[in-house]
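hiii, so i know i said id send this last week but things got crazy w the move. better late than never?? heres the sequnce for the chain we talked about at the cafe, plus the structure i predicted for it. fair warning i was half asleep when i ran it
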Amino acid sequence: MWDTFLKRKVHLIACGGTALTLLGIKASTKDVDIIVPDGNEYKYLIGVLSDLGYKRATGAGWNRGDGFIFDIFSGKSIHTTELLCSPVEGNIPIKEFEHVYLGVLNYYDVLISKLFRGTEIDSEDCLMLVLAKRGEINISKFVERFRETASYDISEDSVNRNLDHFLKRLKSEGLEW
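okay and structure toks below
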């Protein structure tokens, strides 16, 4: 765990499949997706990881040759999706260590960030989340937040089509709002 190598606090907010795994919705994920909302904490963490032998493996991915890739995003963007609010707002606390705060991105932003990518796996993950947390997710609120987020995206029409497809899928599963 990175906590033993850090000398100051770093907030890690799990997103993507990692969020679903930490919430007990998905058994595993192929990589570890986290956001470090504060830019200074991000720079500090990346410096520590570099000192520990981690190297950039992909755009946001870091590894040290052991097969695990940590996709580490800074600020309020996941891949190309910029969230409306800081990932710290409304996150679900998981565990606090001496130097690491670990939380999970709120359900709405998990859904938004996965549906913006539009892959079948992301759609499946979103369906699992909605089914598992149906009493805690207000679909109308989700749709409103999704469309607002999409209005700032260069691919607004495309991501809105992803949403429309997902809503049809929810309806076919008997989930009305």
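btw The first strand starts at residue 10 and ends at 14. thought thatd interest u
miss u guys!!
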